[in-house]
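Budget justification aside, the reviewers requested a transparent look at the raw inputs and outputs of the sequence design task funded under Objective 1. We therefore reproduce one unedited record. The lines immediately below are the structure tokens for a 573-residue chain.
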């Protein structure tokens, strides 16, 4: 293997030459305490940056095996090391005096959530960081001296600061890893306790602002405290107990005045499908991992979805048992989102009245008398929500501020008062008995299992020049069609979107064969990831790109469902 001197000489030999001369440094170099792999060299200083890997042997890193002794702890450790590498890289990068991305030194950026990523790999024998650099240029000419400082000084220093255990705060990394493990452990206990979510006492749920995911500062925040009637205790890894509010299976309502914390609680629950970093405030808020936030989504495309349980007998004889639309309305889009969530295996639906279609959620008694049922194709959600649980085993948590008729069908009612939750279940039942609405249920047929759909391979074929590319957090360009994920609220990282783009290509080649259902195809991909790691979905070899984070099955299905060229056929449930 080539060494430090070889790389230095190569760089000196191409000084001031055209930028493409950097291609000659591609390869692997032993720098002593680490091996530097230069896997991909950018073609231009303005092009996407170069892909590199720093591999440190465990004989040098000396990370204790107990920090990665199981999958939870390994993911927590890799997340922690990625954050350290990112922080150190920011201190060492030098963007001065170059063009384009010159001097960039970065790794996948982590948010509040702890996700399975490709940016860091911890093994029995090594630690591998996957990162990017902007090779320095003046105009489009190689800057060899600056490149030598980057690759032979800055990168090894970052690796030493981030990946050597002697440079790490032992208590801090143990807390990070243990917090990850405890969240997985708490989530695993929910089903046995017939819960769908748990919010620990002392949690800080409000965020710093509407555009920040940082917790509200302690002096202004109200720590969460469970109502005594809903308080449960779960067990942590060390055997100790942690108490908080348990959200039971069934139908749960969150009510209260505006700005009292209803939606804040719901957002914490919907993000509870992920683990969170220590200090986030929500690190002991856990939710069943299949929970799906659903809402109205005017204008989205829908393909072959059976929304008949919610909407039937549309004018012009539109078939809602196999509903297709390029521009769905609020009510038809919300019905489709619910059915698609069920198709993806969701056990918990999360809804907020503010982002729902009013006519989909409720038809009160006055409107029932004014507009007879024969003229109304919608079976409102209020008349299906109990069936979802009793027939399909799917629970619902719903934020309400104006639809009091839901009090008749709720198992639990939580009332938020200045960010303090109170159990209002008994009071709600008294109110429902005292002020009876005399509203009639509008169900004409019983709820049934969702009809699975088979994506047709022809709809995913690409032309010779077509590409599949992510565009930030909210969009994927698949060929000539853009998949809009901006209202898929539980997508939290652009690295997940990067992975979704690759999964679509991977799945189209291997599992969209015209016989597998969408759910089966996605399950097959996730099984490959479980067996072979997230690298399995990448068309690149050598561990790149490093900016992938594992999305849930629900978000992968959501991307397929929003692909406007999708064609699918239904199977009998």
């Amino acid at each position: 293997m080539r060494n430090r001197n070889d790389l230095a000489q190569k760089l000196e030999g191409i000084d001031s030459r055209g930028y493409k001369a950097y291609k000659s440094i591609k390869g692997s170099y032993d720098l002593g305490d680490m091996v530097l792999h230069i896997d991909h060299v950018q073609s231009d200083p303005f092009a996407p940056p170069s892909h590199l890997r720093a591999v440190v042997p465990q004989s040098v890193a000396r990370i204790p095996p107990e920090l990665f002794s199981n999958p939870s702890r390994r993911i927590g450790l890799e997340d922690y090391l990625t954050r350290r590498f990112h922080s150190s890289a920011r201190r060492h990068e030098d963007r001065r005096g170059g063009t384009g991305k010159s001097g960039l030194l970065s790794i996948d950026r982590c948010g509040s959530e702890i996700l399975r990523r490709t940016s860091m790999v911890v093994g029995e024998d090594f630690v591998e960081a996957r990162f990017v650099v902007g090779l320095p240029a003046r105009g489009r000419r190689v800057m060899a001296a600056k490149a030598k400082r980057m690759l032979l000084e800055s990168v090894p220093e970052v690796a030493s600061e981030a990946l050597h255990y002697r440079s790490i705060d032992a208590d801090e990394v143990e807390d990070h890893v243990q917090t990850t493990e405890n969240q997985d452990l708490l989530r695993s206990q929910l089903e046995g306790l017939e819960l769908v979510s748990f919010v620990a006492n002392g949690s800080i749920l409000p965020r710093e602002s509407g555009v920040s995911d940082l917790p509200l500062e302690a002096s202004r925040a109200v720590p969460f405290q469970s109502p005594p009637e809903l308080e449960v205790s779960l067990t942590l890894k060390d055997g100790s107990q942690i108490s908080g509010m348990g959200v039971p299976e069934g139908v749960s309502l969150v009510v209260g005045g505006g700005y009292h914390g209803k939606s804040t609680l719901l957002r914490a629950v919907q993000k509870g499908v992920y683990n969170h970093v220590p200090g986030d405030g929500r690190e002991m808020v856990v939710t069943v991992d299949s929970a799906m936030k659903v809402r109205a989504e005017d204008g989205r495309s829908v393909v072959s979805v059976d929304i008949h349980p919610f909407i039937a007998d549309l004018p012009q004889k539109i078939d809602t048992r196999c509903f297709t639309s390029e521009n769905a309305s609020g009510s038809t889009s919300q019905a489709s989102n619910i059915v698609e969530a069920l198709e993806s295996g969701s056990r918990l639906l999360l809804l907020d009245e503010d982002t729902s279609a009013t006519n989909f959620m409720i038809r009160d008694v006055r409107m029932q008398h004014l507009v007879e049922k024969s003229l109304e194709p919608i079976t409102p959600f209020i008349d299906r929500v109990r069936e979802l649980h009793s027939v399909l085993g799917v629970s619902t948590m719903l934020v309400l501020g104006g639809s009091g008729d839901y009090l008749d069908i709720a198992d639990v009612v939580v009332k938020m008062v200045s960010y303090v939750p109170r159990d209002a279940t008994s009071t709600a039942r008294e109110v429902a008995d005292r002020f009876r609405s005399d509203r009639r249920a509008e169900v004409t047929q019983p709820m049934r299992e969702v009809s699975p759909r088979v994506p047709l391979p022809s709809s995913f074929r690409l032309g010779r020049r077509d590409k599949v590319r992510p565009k930030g957090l909210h969009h994927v360009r698949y060929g000539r069609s853009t998949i809009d994920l901006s209202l898929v609220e539980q997508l939290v990282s652009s690295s997940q979107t990067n992975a979704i783009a690759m999964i679509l290509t991977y799945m189209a080649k291997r599992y969209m064969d015209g016989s597998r259902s969408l759910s089966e195809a996605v399950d097959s991909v996730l099984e490959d990831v479980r067996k072979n790691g997230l690298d399995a979905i990448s068309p690149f070899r050598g561990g790149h790109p490093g900016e992938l984070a594992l999305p849930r099955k629900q978000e992968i299905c959501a991307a397929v469902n929003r692909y406007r060229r999708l064609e699918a056929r239904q199977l009998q449930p």
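The chain is about 30% helix and 20% strand. The radius of gyration is 26 Å. Computational costs for records of this kind are itemized in the attached budget.
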